[in-house]
Amino acid sequence: MAAPTPPDTSSGEEQSQGRTNYLRIWHKDHWFWPYLKQNKGLLALIFFLGTITFVCAAGLMFTSGFLINRSARQPFNIFAVYVPVVLTRAFGIGRPSFKYLERIKSHNWVLQVVSKLRVQLYRTLSKDAAFLTEHERTGSILGMLADDLDHLENFYLRTIFPTIVAYLVWIVVTISVGVFSWTASLLLFVLFALVLILIPLVSLAFSDGLYAREKALQQSQYTKVTESYLGLSDWVITHRQQEFMETGAGEFAAALASQARQKRFERWRNCVIQMIFAVMAVGLLVGSDLTMTSSKSLADYSAAVVLALFPLIDCFIVVAQAVAEVPLYTDSLSHLNDLSDRVESRQLEPVVQQQLSGPVQTVDFDHVTFSYGPGQPALLEDFSLHIKAGEKVALLGPSGEGKTTILQLLLGDLQPQSGQILVNGVSVAALQEQRPDIFGYLNQQPFLFNTTIAANVRLGAPEASDEQVWAALKAVRLGQLVAAMPLGIDTPVEESGQRLSGGQRQRLALARIVLKENPVILLDEPTIGLDPITERQLMSMVFKACQDRTLVWVTHHLQGLESADQVIFLEDGAIAMQGRPADLYRTNPRFRELYRLDVGDLSR
Amino acid sequence: MIDKSLFQFAGIRRTLSLLALLSIGQGLSIGGQASGLTWVLVQIWNLRGLNSLLWPVLVFFLSFGLRQLIEVAKQHVATRYADQIVAELRPRVQRKVFALGPAGLSQRGTGSTVTMLIDGLDEVKTYIFTVLPKMMDMTFIPVMVLLVVLTQSPLSALVLFLMLPLLFFFMAILGLAARDRSNKQYAQFQELNTRFVDTILGLPTLKMLGVNQDYEDEIFNVSERFRKRTMSVIRVALTSTFALDFFTTLAIAIVAVFLGNDLINGSIALFPAMLSLILAPDYFLPIRQFGDDYHATLDGKNALGDMMALLDQPEPERRNLDWDGWQADSNLEIQDLSFAYPVRDEVESAGVGEGAGVSRDAAGRAIAAAQGTAGDADAVPAVGGTHAADEPQVSGGPQQSTDGHSLVTEASGERGQDVGAQADVHPGNDQKPVTGKTGRAADTGMTGHESAQETIADKVIAATGGKAAEQQAQAAPTPVIFSDRDGAQAAAPIQTGALEGLNLSLHGYTKLAVIGRSGAGKSTLVNLLAGFNIPQSGSIRLDGKRLESFNAQAWQEHISYIPQAPYIFNGSIADNIRFYVQNADDQAVMQAADQAGLGDWLASLSEGLETHIGEGNRGISGGQAQRIALARVILDKSRRILLFDEPTAHLDIETEYELKQTLLPIMEDHLVIFATHRLHWLADVDQVIMLDRGRIVAQGKPSELIGQGGPLDQLIDEMGGNQIDGYRNI
């Protein structure tokens, strides 16, 4: 089993250490290429529309240049320039129209891909339960992955599409000029190659690592400033204003300087590209003078050819920047691909699933040893625990003692190196399909969806009736509160349940469990951060609501412990103290002391 | 377009004049370039030989080059100036944050202030270096081009000139329509996008409940609906770009056809005709670019506005005080002290404005995205994407009105960037809700995104009519937290965490515990004593000297302030311990660390005191962080006043127990003020005050108060007390 080291999505270290090996990132890609292969018809249409837009732009200047020149010959009547007049109008209308269509289609295509990418991200994440449990508290990594998808959108729109269109236009230009003069075509081809190949590669080489470095600087500034803001009180009472002001200033200045360097490069690069076009224009002028002055009718085309060049600048100048930004997106892409790889590598061999025949009778840890990978300290060593149905077990121990690990093992999200975890004698690995029905889970920060109260409660039991939802709410004593809301159970809870206090959020999450009627309830320090009164209310509610169910409760406080049947203190991966709370209180002075401390028993 | 606040920066006029000059120079070079080109083309048209092209080609090439060089110079000037402004703004903002102190900061929201400082400055920079040169271009270049065309072909000039109002008209009409439409759709728009992030974040829960499969389709459906909404907004925005584009190209086509006609009639020569045609696109270019960037830079404009609002906030006064520190015979008399969190006038409007601002800005982005020419601002509107990601950080709302310092970091101690996400409203109803009744009233307006806040504020005020409620509503404009403790609070509508008529007398090395329910004002009192909160009224006498507030340097130099999550910064453990006394030698640091109970831990680290910590508090447990804070206190012998704000609330019981053993000896020979929920501390203090809704309801020695049936007993009772002792007979 791979060690669940958190993915270091925040730092761009690999980039800053040297040139990114793009091939390595693009190799075995699951998030980019597969989508370029989808919906090829629409994609081709987009590229066609993009190309035709610039053909029209060039065509407009071409025909109008010709129109002016031909008209200046003062032909007998307007019909002599009828075709260029019509074409001028056609190109004039065509350019904005095709551009409009191209944009509509490309945005639509990209958003379609995004829909699929979102599903893919969701599916990938849901395959890896352990990853989720590790990161659900921070949530930041999940949010960051969602952001990475947004970056991919821009990758298509800002880099891929313009670049491909530019290359297509390049081909069109080369061919159409080549029809008339192969030498001119070849010369133009070489000059365009500078703009479309050499300069973009130089830009890429220049920007490679810079974006990553700037991002790292930004990140470091973020960390430092956030730290200093959180510690502002200490800065204030030490009166170190100057130093406080300078926190992160180094990073800020460095990022500023780096960006300034980048901007300077971009300015001069664009200037060089423009000058290449100037050279092309001069070349075309000289060329037309050399080849087209043999007759008046031929000379009329000279302006057309030269003027048609200028609209193409818009098409070609963006390529260099588009390519330079590749590292920006590669970063996001590599996060997503890393995720895929990690999830893939952690997939276990499928276990034949079984169904429990009757109600849960026993839960057993049978000589379980667990560590996160070889070389890591064992969090549990030969740990055995027998829990009977309906029993309430409290797990205690200093942080980092694998209390949460026990819950993850019990859920089957983690697998022990040796030993077994059994429900009614059946391994939990074989009960994964039935798992949501067996286990209910309440953690430190319950997640409430940004929807109505009813939908949140009903999450685990979608078919539950309104009456059942109300009953569940009453069981956690939220009934009155919700009834007092004008929309009742249809009141939205708002993002992350901000409308509710911490205790209320926990109770709402508890209502889910009440409604779902799972026989085994796992509690992972649900009262952390709550004040003692709320804590006590919540726990008594939990015990009341789960009267007939089995309860495994990881806790950091002893308050409420008296309602448990068994208390287990973990120390160094093994059980240090175990027993009924009242017994322990009587026989174990250490337990008594801690308990009295926790409940604020002041009698001596 | 341009922010008036920009004019207060030094050098703005100089920069603008410089940019104006450069724009004029560019206008001239555009003329030169076009004339040179036309000249060459006319020569070729006249079938002249190669040597006749030398001068015209040279004019063209040099003008073209000059134009590009001026462009480089212009961007250089603008970028440098933008850099200069942000480099000037950063220390100003930082200074202000320092001056406003922790109370001011938490009222504004720590997360959003960090975002403002870092991302905001970035946006301001982009705004300045984009807008300034484009504005100058638009002011000068079209006029210059038009003048040149006027001398060559008045008819073409007329066409171009007439096209302008048409252009603006359509830009305005369609731009407004797009904005209006996207504003209307913003709520749905936002909701659909956040639904995705929401579902991803809630995936562990869904999986636990076994419904993650069902939500896979949901994700797709929501995304598809999001796509359709986005497309409908984009379509409108694109139509406006289309109109812009259409009239521009149409104008060129019309000019070309008119010129052709005139040429056939012989009413115009080739040179002026060709020159007019070549100049036509350059006439429109600055206007179009200006239009494109207008929306793209809205973020920066808003960020600048935010910063200016912060910089304009009044600062608490700091008085000088001649005082040598707390001694065994020192005295502090506090009489009739009252404090309420300030009503910030701008909060309400800012709250509402912010909502509107965000949506404007979202609309802007959608439009900018669609309008971007040549990939300039080409992006799918990441409207919700980025905002959703921001939101947890900016969730300062609930913190704002709670006890000044309610940023609670998780026990795991991971801080860093996700402060906001983890920072929680001290969940146990610390945020004393708008009373039950008003909570309900407020709820009626919860449908719209923007209107909601207004409605809440209005209705709350209407419902209670009391000033306190008004303050509450304004201090926390966003979330209304429902109260389920009805009745009791409705009777006394006092602001959460406010203090009223506080009398307190402290003498020598007293140890005082401050207890009470959540939101009773414990933290407010500690913040007041630390000088972060400034009392509205009351008198303070410190060793016979009168004080207006505790925001006095001499006082603050003698206090240590230890909150729930003490300040641990990125650096070595030694540096962290040295925070109060920076010149302390290694031996003293080691001694302090030992005394704070860090010895065993340090011994287990290969680099000992030089071990690097911080960076999101990695590798440090809550107990260790507290011990580092204690080592700081031990090291600085001059700080004889210890202010604790719930130092053990997050720790598990064993860690708390061990920390207490370390803490008790340190508390000797200090004036200790200890705000806590944990009643066991009462056994170790000399005095206790119990706060209830901002007033002292019990005061005295713990032994004299406990068991008297007073409010303290009632509190102990509510907390449960020793339940097992009651089971002894089982």
TrEMBL record, chain A:
Principal location class: membrane
Domain ABC transporter, first and last residues per copy: 363-597
Subcellular location(s) of the protein: Cell membrane
InterPro entries documented for this protein: AAA+_ATPase, ABC1_TM_dom, ABC1_TM_sf, ABC_CydC/D, ABC_transporter-like_ATP-bd, ABC_transporter-like_CS, P-loop_NTPase, Type_1_exporter
BP terms from Gene Ontology: cell redox homeostasis; glutathione transmembrane transport
SUPFAM superfamilies xrefs: ABC transporter transmembrane region (SSF90123), P-loop containing nucleoside triphosphate hydrolases (SSF52540)
Annotated ranges, domain ABC transmembrane type-1: 44-310
GO terms of molecular function: ABC-type transporter activity; ATP binding; ATP hydrolysis activity; ATPase-coupled lipid transmembrane transporter activity
Transmembrane segments: 42-68, 74-93, 160-180, 186-206, 271-291, 303-324
Keywords: ATP-binding, Cell membrane, Membrane, Nucleotide-binding, Transmembrane, Transmembrane helix, Transport
Membrane protein topology class: Multi-pass membrane protein
A Gene Ontology cellular-component term: plasma membrane
PANTHER family: ATP-BINDING CASSETTE SUB-FAMILY B, TRANSPORT ATP-BINDING PROTEIN CYDC
Family: Belongs to the ABC transporter superfamily. Lipid exporter (TC 3.A.1.106) family.
Name this polypeptide is given: Thiol reductant ABC exporter subunit CydC
